Amino acid sequence: MHIVISDDHQDCIRNLGCFDKLKNHTVEIFNNTVSGVDALADRFKDAEAIVLIRERTVITRELLDRLPKLKVISQTGKIASHVDLQACKDKGIMVMDGRGSGAATAELNMLLILAALRRFVEEVNRLKGGQWQGYLGSQLSGKVLGVYGYGRIGKQVCEIGKAFGAKPLVWGRATSIEKAQQAGFETAASKEEFFSNSDIVCLQLRLNDQTRGIVKASDLAMMKSTALLVNASRAELIEDGALEAALKQGRPGYAAVDTYESEPVLGADHPLLHLSNCLCTPHIGFVEKDNYEAYFGSAFDNINSYAAGSPQNCVN
Prior knowledge:
Elements: E1 2-5, E2 26-29, H1 37-43, E3 49-53, H2 61-64, E4 72-76, H3 85-90, E5 94-96, H4 103-117, H5 120-128, E6 144-148, H6 152-163, E7 167-171, H7 174-182, E8 186-187, H8 191-197, E9 200-203, H9 217-221, E10 228-231, H10 242-249, E11 254-257, E12 278-280, H11 289-307
Parallel strand pairs: 1-2, 1-3, 3-4, 4-5, 6-7, 6-9, 7-8, 9-10, 10-11, 11-12
Helix pairs in contact: 4-6
């Protein structure tokens, strides 16, 4: 099959061990991101199969109308709203999702929390600039670690946070609250209590029509002036422009983010990158070698299973 993989920003996929699984196929890899139907249609014009790297590329019905050769889409990780599943079904295009542990993303959340609390990056830069200690950071132990969403990654963040001596506090849908309570974690009585009582708010929600903009400016305004907000899930979970405004107003006092509304962010072209009370990383939560081997290995297995006539992990 002719397989096209887009958005390999680090040019690393061909160096993964699992890439050998595609040795019997023709593989075309692009290292940049393009947008717009015309550009995407040109990129995928010869594709019989597309491997999607998370939600970096949006697949619409209009785009699919321009891709008559396409037979299968294999996703790294779970399919979200970036793929029009009904359009794929209507056109006979099979969509399959991949598997991963989420451990890398949970670890990145903890790294952001610890680095923000101890002003780690600022201290490193001070030392490189010829200075000595400049900030009095704070520890995670003893703090209320608010986790919004108790799914696979949210569960891991609660467990790791507890190991550091934090006090996890969970909020989310009724099913999330029930699962957290069954696991022995404290849950908030309301959204207001969650945001006002948490020393750290860590967003662990999937982006969909129900969660888009679920965190409002009014929620952020309830946070402590000493609180930290961490978002390594999706930028669109927060109401447009609300986090920038909240940080300027001092509630919360600090933020650490790994995701942005439009990616990649080049030329430092995002307002959060210019705030002294925001630690920003370039969406590296799931970008880790072991995780990539698992995600892409699963996505490549999906394509081989389709080629062999026994498709697996189908979602449409």
